[in-house]
């Protein structure tokens, strides 16, 4: 018997909103603990549907999802967070009518009082800006602060895996950099992070490995360094500025 | 001018308010106007009547009125049990009807279905109890004077009960996990699932609270008027007027709306004429929708 591999493993996943009309058509990805994996792909490639299916909010037709060796394919969405898989949707990812503190408390209802206190303290340290605004309704936060709150909320349960659907959408480059700094800290704690991104340049700065989906299927995969050298990736995402951009991103530029 | 209408209006308003809380919760969590809510009021009252009779037959000492009130401990015990039963009735109606419709239909389907459910629930009451009016209490009460108004001890107790029930619910909603979950599901059910809330449980809790408070409203109403199978249905328009006036989703708003509608109705009867009573709720409803669609304590969307 082989030891279960740690992290998230998705095998041959087929999923979609309507039965018989899959949007994700046999995708396989892996993300280890302490690793940031980025899913890239053109519009309509099925990136969002993939993470939603993993999180249990889009029906899975076939294939398996395992987390630290445990099969979580058929687990209902509301039991995912408690089981160690946290998801940050792209939009409407905080409760705007609830206070910042209540947004965090609501994710902590499965924890003991002592665990809860420890997690709130940890989040106050990781996100001091939010701690200062704990009484404010989340709807009054800026876009960047909302995204931070959504990530903080997802981390309350000490997840093994964190899925984020385009967290950088609509944020200024400065705020994206701040958010990604937080993701690096979270990675350092051994969390496995799966990031769907349209913003390729931003994603490439923090990804350890990349998957490229096209039309609901795996197209390319590999470590960042290898993919950046791939002419197809360059053509798809980096336009004509392949060499210079890739060089900048790899830190090997002039 | 006599201010006597204040006493009657406050009690009627508290009854309407308790019923409106259920309407407002169902609307904000499940996104449809439940026209069967009035039937929970009637069912709650009849269940209380039935249980009070059974308890009275089993322990006849419980029939003696409590202090200055017109009812005995049997009615109080029966009302508590009936609140739980009416809550379960509401959950059962959801499981049989609305939950199935939620999977496919839209909110209009649910509204129409609630009309059908209302008729079925009312017809069942008529079949079981006939439409002959009955009473929870036939004791005469001596009114006491409070600041120039004549009020009965029952009226004072009922008003206090309504405030306590709504206050307790408001504490639950703002201070407990269950309440936070209800507010979260009301705002964004999809996100609620993602953060680990069992939405089906929250929906059951919502029905239970709505049904139990409707039963309390039914008991209040049953102490003031004749008990008939149509008693709840006749309250439906004031319930909706109160829920919308207070602001959909707001529990204190529903009580406040109920008190305003109740006072307006009683004031109309005294100052203008009883024939205008039924029109008042309707006029308030239209005025709110035109002037302040979010209601008094609601959030503009």
Show the helix and strand layout:
The complex is a heterodimer of chains A (254) and B (301).
Chain A: E1 8-15, E2 24-31, E3 36-40, H1 47-55, E4 60-67, E5 70-71, E6 85-88, H2 100-107, H3 113-126, H4 128-132, H5 143-155, E7 161-165, H6 173-188, E8 192-196, H7 200-206, E9 209-214, E10 217-223, H8 224-228, H9 231-238, H10 242-250
Helix pairs in contact in A: 2-5
Chain B: H1 5-30, H2 37-58, H3 73-104, H4 107-129, E1 144-146, E2 149-151, H5 153-175, H6 177-187, H7 189-194, H8 199-224, H9 236-246, H10 251-271, H11 277-291
Antiparallel strand pairs in B: 1-2
Would you write up a description of this structure?
The complex is a heterodimer of chains A (about 250) and B (about 300). Chain A has helices at about 45-55, 100-105, 115-125, 130, 145-155, 175-190, 200-205, 225-230, 230-240, 240-250, and strands at about 10-15, 25-30, 35-40, 60-65, 70, 85-90, 160-165, 190-195, 210-215, 215-225. Chain A is about 35% helix and about 25% strand. In chain A, the strands form 2 sheets. In chain A, strands 6-7-8-3-9-10 form a 6-stranded mixed β-sheet, sandwiched between helices. A 4-stranded antiparallel β-sheet of chain A has the order 2-1-4-5, with helices on one face. Chain A has one domain (about 10-250): 3-Layer(aba) Sandwich (Rossmann fold), CATH 3.40.50.300. Chain A contains 10 helices and 10 strands. The radius of gyration of chain A is 18 Å and the shape is globular. Chain A is α/β, with parallel strands linked by helices. Chain B has about 300 residues and is mainly alpha-helical. Chain B has one domain (about 15-235). Helix content of chain B is about 70%, strand content about 0%. Chain B is globular and about 55 Å long. The relative contact order of chain B is 0.21. At the A-B interface, helix 2 of A face helix 6 and helix 7 of B.
Distinctive features:
heterodimer, A: 254 residues, alpha/beta, Rossmann fold, six-stranded mixed β-sheet, four-stranded antiparallel β-sheet, globular, B: 301 residues, mainly alpha, two-stranded antiparallel sheet
